[in-house]
Every structure is written in structure tokens, then in C-alpha cells.
Amino acid sequence: MARTVRIGIVGTSWWIDTMFGPALQSHPQAEMVAICGRDQSRAAEMAAKYGIPQVYSDYRAMIAQSDLHAVVIATPDDLHHEIARHALDAGLHVLCEKPLALTAQQAWEMYAQAEAARVRHMVLYTYRWLPFFQYAHDLIDQGYIGRCYHCEFHYLGGYARHPEYSWRFDQERANGALGDLGSHMIDLARWLVGDITQVKASLGVSVDRPGAAGGPISPANDSATLLVEFANGAHGLIQASAVAYVADRAFQQQISLYGDAGSLEITFYPFGIDAGATIRGARSSEGTFQTLAVPDAYWGEASRSNPFEVFNKQSVGSRLFVEAILANRPVAPSFYDGYKAQQVIDAALESHSSGRAVTIVNPANG
After folding, report:
1. pLDDT score at 362
2. How many angstroms separate the CA atoms of 306 and 325, rounded?
3. 41-60 pLDDT tens trace
4. CB atoms within 10 A of CB 235
5. Could you tell me how far CA 9 lies from the centroid of its own chain?
6. Which of 87, 152, 204, 275 maximizes the CB count within 10 A of its CB?
């Protein structure tokens, strides 16, 4: 393996500009050599900004011609499966945006193919790497709450309150707020509590919006509420909304975990007058909650006022992906984690449709 990882980017969205471009540019052993987008002017603009020498409109041509080691996929959800499988056919390492696919079957195919190809594969579940969630995870591992009895995961935003077309809320292209925001909370729930085995869901569509060409649309949910059971016996609530008015916060997250040894409560607001993250905890031997400061080691060189700086300064996210390729070691969250999250999404969609709780059974191939 070369000591520099040659990467092709598929997608030209604001998220490429916010997350992947700066993070990969900051890594001395990552080289962005090609970018692909349907809007060639936008692709050329991104290429100029990040010093990417090759610009494509067809990801197949990029994979065939650019002498790549790895591909980053940050496209609408309905394209993930096709692009990833093409990259895996070429023996490339793949970093894919969440959710991994549209269905658990697609996600399993991507995972199985990546494992068979013996390449590195990762899903970018952003929040696993933020310092306060890392610290909370370690506290739980150290027994702070003991056996978890029940938990709540809330992710509320307001970006879908306006009646305009968005592929995220088109059933042909995505699974709505459940797939967008909910997949993050499902992943955090698995990471902090354990595998989910049963789902009872209610999905809502609050905003009427047109289809892509102004015609009718098969609307995907803009809010989702899931009652879940975990393999370890815990019960939980997962809520995601893209139509909640959260004022100047942009979005808000609240996570609460209650166990036999204690409780943890985590809140995160990225913007606004109350911006920041707070962890409060109480052990069963204590009479009050107290604020738990995240130790400096979790922050490193990142600013406490901007936790997303970890993606440009620590071995997390796409930087961790590069290092896993160079060291030839597995990396998490992997396509398997993406598959497990997609099982919960599938179960939620089925539950809402049927009106019944759905049990998640791991098949022989999953």
C-alpha cells in the first residue's frame, strides 16, 4: 500500500464542503485526486477550492480512470448502493454517508461485498466522535449507569418546515427524517445501549410538498417516533423530527439513560445563546445530579466551542478511515453498523404500515 491514500469524491453538496473536504485536506497522507458531480460548475468550484486535479460527471469513469485507492460517497441515499457496489467491484475502500442504503437488504449486500473484497469500509455516523458522546460512552463502559433500564434519544431540527421539494422527503429517494436524523440516533442507541430487537413506530408527514418537477410526490416522513426494545432488556424511545421549531439552535439533541447504578443526561445545541453540550449524571448513591466536565484529553486540539473541529484535528471520521487503510485494520462504524441501523429503519417503516410492533430477527446471512 502506498503511503498516500488516493481518494475520489462522489458528491458536491454542502456536506462535502463542510465535512469531507476540510478533514481530508488536513490529513498529510490523504490526497483528493478526483471529484464527481452532476453539476459540473459546482464540481469544478469544489475542485479548485481543495486542489483536486480531476473533475468527472460520471462516477464510473472516475473509478476507471483515476487510479484510486478509496472512494467517499456523499450522494442522495438512493445512489449509495449502486455506487458503493461499483467501487467495491474495483477493489476500492469505501466511506459512505449515512444511512448506508435504502433497505437492510441493500445494506447487507454492501457489507458482504466489502468483507469479501477485504477492503476498509466505514459509515460516517458523525456524532460517535464528538467528545461529549465519547466521554458518555466511556462512562457507560465503566459502569456509571450499570444495567440500563430505559433510555431516550431525541434529535430535533426544523429544516423541513417549508413546503418545497427535497429528495430526503421523497419515498423514491430516501426514508425521510427517520433515515436522516433517526439513523444517527439509532446508531448512538446501539453504541451506548446495545442491539435493538423490537420496534413500534409512528411516522408523520406534517408538511405538504411538491414532487421534483412540481407534480405529486410519495412523501417520506418528516417526523418519527420509535418505541424500541434492546437485546439486554432495556426499553427506549427514539424521536426524530425535521419540522420542529428550534429557533437559533439549528438542531438539538437530548439523550437520557437510566440504569440500576445511576443516570446520565446529555444535551447538545450547536448554535444559539445556549450553544454547547452538557452532561449531567447521578449515581444511585448520590442525592443530586451534577454536571460532568468532559476531560481535556477528549478534546485534544479541538475547541470546546466547536466540537466539529475534531474531524480536522483528530483520528476520527474520514481521517480515521485513511489511517485504517494505511494500517490495514478494521474501522468502526462499519458497513455492518450501517446494516444494523437499516434493520431498525426497515422495522420502523413496517411497523408504521402495519400498526404492529416488529421484531428484528437476524437471518442466517445477517
Report:
1. 76
2. 28
3. 999 999 999 999 999 999 99
4. 15
5. 17
6. 87
